[in-house]
Design goal:
The chain has 4 helices and no strands. By secondary structure, the chain is mainly alpha-helical. The radius of gyration is 17 Å and the shape is globular. The chain starts with 16 loop residues before the first helix and ends in a 23-residue tail after the last helix. This is Exportin-2 central domain-containing protein.
Length: 113
């Protein structure tokens, strides 16, 4: 029987989100040149927004301290994604707590460079 819908062999491949983030997204966010490759920077910020809850809680302070640098980007798209991501990260709470407890403390946040 011939299927009417063809899908490529890489379709439905599972990806380890934390490993992908640490290998590909984080190095791009750590690059101090926020205005270079603005489309890539925007995609890295955009990738982090929906997958932030799948990252280990020990990893969250890293993007929180990197994202404020992107608020000064020349590209409005990068600037907007950075603002949304920063808001989402700062509003994260500890899971399985009866009272909403912030995931990040004041000690986890450093001054932007």
């Amino acid at each position: 029987m011939i299927s009417s819908c063809w899908s490529p062999p890489w379709h439905h491949v599972l990806v380890n989100i934390p490993t992908f983030f640490e290998s590909y997204v984080l190095p791009e966010l750590q690059n101090p040149a926020v205005d270079q490759l603005s489309v890539i920077k925007a995609e890295c910020l955009r990738y982090t927004i929906p997958f932030r809850r799948l990252l280990p809680s020990t990893t969250i302070p890293v993007p929180v301290n990197l994202v404020p640098n992107f608020l000064a980007a020349a590209s409005p798209v990068v600037h907007n994604y950075a603002a949304v991501l920063l808001e989402k990260l700062l509003l994260m709470t500890l899971p399985d707590q009866p009272v909403l407890t912030p995931l990040l403390s004041k000690m986890d946040i450093s001054a932007p460079e």
